[in-house]
Design a protein that fits this description.
Length: 426
C-alpha cells in the first residue's frame, strides 16, 4: 500500500504540472496503476485483519470511501472552478497528491497482515497483531490456530519463528486456480469472480456516468434540474452504502445481495417502461418522468445495499490463504474490464436498441445474477476465513455442506466445553 500511495502521489503531480495533453494522459496512466494496486490490496488486507464478527462492516469500507471520495471530488471541483481556467484544472487534478502523503504516512503505522506473517513463519508477530485485532485472547488463539492449519504448519509448532511448508508460487498458483483446480476451487473461482462480473454487468456505471443523459431523456430539460437530480442520486448512493455497512454482519451477505439484485431487476424494468412511454409521447408525461427519476434513485440505493459493497467483501474472503491475493486480483481485473466495457458501449447500445432497450438488457443481466447467487452462493457471515473455504465444492448442494459443517462445529464446541469442565473439576 505504501507503493500504491507513492504511485498516487507521482500520478497526481504529473497531472497537476502537465505541460501538454500527452503528459496529462501519462499522469492518468500512472495514477491508474496506483488505483489497481489499492483496489486489490485494501480489501484483502482489511479482511485478513478483521475479526469475523465485524469483517463485513470493515471490508465494505472501500466502497464507502470510493463514493465519499467521488463526492469530495465534486465539491473540490466546484471550489476550484472559480479560479482562472489555466489554474483550475491543475488544482482539480493535482490536489490528489495531498491525501496520498497522508495515506503513505498512516500505512507505515498499521500492523502487517497476520496471515502474511504466518505464511512467513513469524508466529510471534502474528500473535501480537491478532491480540490487537481480536475481541478476546481466546478468539486470537482460535484465529491463529486456523491460520496455521491453512498454512500447513503443525499445531504443536509454537515457536516465535517456524519453518513453513513450501506453497505454490507464480505459475503454480495460476495452475491451482484455473488449470487443474479442485472442485472447491472451481466453486470459489466461479462465485468469487462472478460477483465482480455481475456487479458491473448490471449497468451501474451506465447509470452513474450517464445520469444527466438519462434524466434528459426522461424529460428533464433544465440543466439545473438535471444537476440537482444527479446530485440527489449521488447522495442516495452514498447514504445506502453506509446503511449496508451496518447490515452486512447482522443480516448476512446472501439476503442483502439477493434483495439488491432482485430490486435492481424490477427498478430497471420500470425505468425502461417509463422511458418507453416518454419516447412514444408527444407531450410530457408527468407520471413517467417521476417514475424514471424515482427508479434511478431506487436502483442506485439497491445497488448500494448489496451489489456494491458485497462484491469487495465476498470476493476477498472466499479464496484460501495461499490463493487469496491472486484470486482476488483476478476478480478486480474482471470488475474493471467489465466496467470499461459497460461504460464505453452504453451510447452505442442506446443508438442500436434505444435507451429503454439498453436498460431492459441490464435488467435481464441483473435477473440472471439473482439466479446465479441464489443457487451457487454460500453464506459466509460469522465464519472464519478458513471455515469459509470449506463451504465450497458441492456447487448446487452447498446448503447440505453448510448444515454438515454447522453440525461438526457444534460437536467440536461441545467437546471443548467438556474438556474444559474436566480440567476445572480435576
Amino acid at each position: 500500500m505504501v507503493v500504491a500511495a507513492v504511485i498516487f502521489l507521482i500520478g497526481a503531480l504529473l497531472m497537476g504540472f502537465a505541460p501538454n495533453y500527452a503528459f496529462l494522459m501519462f499522469g492518468r496512466f500512472i495514477a491508474g496503476i496506483g488505483v489497481g494496486y489499492a483496489l486489490v490490496i485494501a480489501p484483502v488486507y482489511t479482511v485478513e485483519v478483521s475479526p469475523e464478527s465485524s469483517r463485513g462492516f470493515l471490508t465494505s469500507f472501500p466502497e464507502v470511501f470510493i463514493n465519499g471520495g467521488i463526492l469530495l471530488g465534486y465539491v473540490s471541483n466546484v471550489a476550484f472552478s472559480k479560479l482562472p481556467i489555466h489554474l483550475s484544472w491543475r488544482f482539480m487534478l493535482g490536489i490528489g497528491a495531498i491525501p496520498s502523503v497522508f495515506l503513505a504516512i498512516s500505512i507505515i503505522t498499521m500492523p502487517e497482515s497476520p496471515r502474511w506473517l504466518v505464511m512467513k513463519g513469524r508466529l510471534h508477530e502474528a500473535r501480537i497483531v491478532l491480540n490487537k485485532t481480536s475481541e478476546s485472547p481466546e478468539e486470537a488463539e482460535s484465529r491463529l490456530r486456523d491460520i496455521k492449519e491453512a498454512a500447513g504448519i503443525p499445531e504443536h509448532c509454537n515457536d516465535d519463528v517456524v519453518q513453513v511448508p513450501k506453497h505454490p508460487k507464480g505459475d503454480n498458483v495460476w495452475k491451482e486456480l484455473f488449470i487443474s483446480p479442485t472442485q472447491s476451487i472451481k466453486h470459489i473461482v466461479l462465485t468469487g469472480i462472478g460477483i465482480h462480473f455481475f456487479q458491473q454487468a448490471s449497468g451501474i456505471d451506465s447509470v452513474v456516468l450517464y445520469s444527466p443523459t438519462i434524466f434528459e431523456r426522461a424529460g428533464i430539460k433544465s440543466d439545473h434540474d438535471r444537476l440537482l437530480a444527479t446530485v440527489a442520486m449521488g447522495c442516495v448512493k452514498t447514504v445506502f452504502i453506509l446503511v449496508a455497512t451496518f447490515l452486512l454482519d447482522r443480516v448476512g451477505r446472501r439476503p442483502l445481495l439477493l434483495t439488491s439484485f432482485g430490486g435492481m431487476t424490477i427498478s430497471l424494468i420500470l425505468l425502461s417502461i417509463g422511458l418507453a412511454v416518454i419516447d412514444r409521447s408527444n407531450s410530457q408525461v408527468t407520471w413517467a418522468v417521476a417514475l424514471c427519476v424515482m427508479m434511478v434513485s431506487v436502483y442506485v440505493a439497491l445497488f448500494s445495499i448489496g451489489a456494491g459493497p458485497i462484491a469487495w467483501v465476498y470476493g476477498s474472503e472466499v479464496f484460501p490463504l495461499k490463493l487469496r491475493a491472486t484470486g482476488f486480483s483476478v476478480g478486480v481485473a474482471v470488475n474493471r474490464v467489465t466496467s470499461g466495457v459497460i461504460s464505453m458501449t452504453f451510447l452505442s447500445l442506446e443508438k442500436a436498441i434505444t435507451i429503454q432497450g439498453a436498460f431492459f438488457s441490464y435488467a435481464g443481466i441483473a435477473g440472471m445474477a439473482w439466479v446465479f447467487f441464489f443457487t451457487l452462493m454460500p453464506e459466509t457471515q460469522g465464519k472464519t476465513l478458513e471455515e469459509t473455504v470449506a463451504l465450497f465444492g458441492t456447487f448446487f448442494e452447498w446448503r447440505s455442506t453448510a448444515r454438515e459443517l454447522k453440525g461438526k462445529k457444534m460437536n467440536n464446541n461441545d467437546e471443548i466445553q467438556m474438556a474444559t469442565g474436566d480440567v476445572v473439576s480435576s
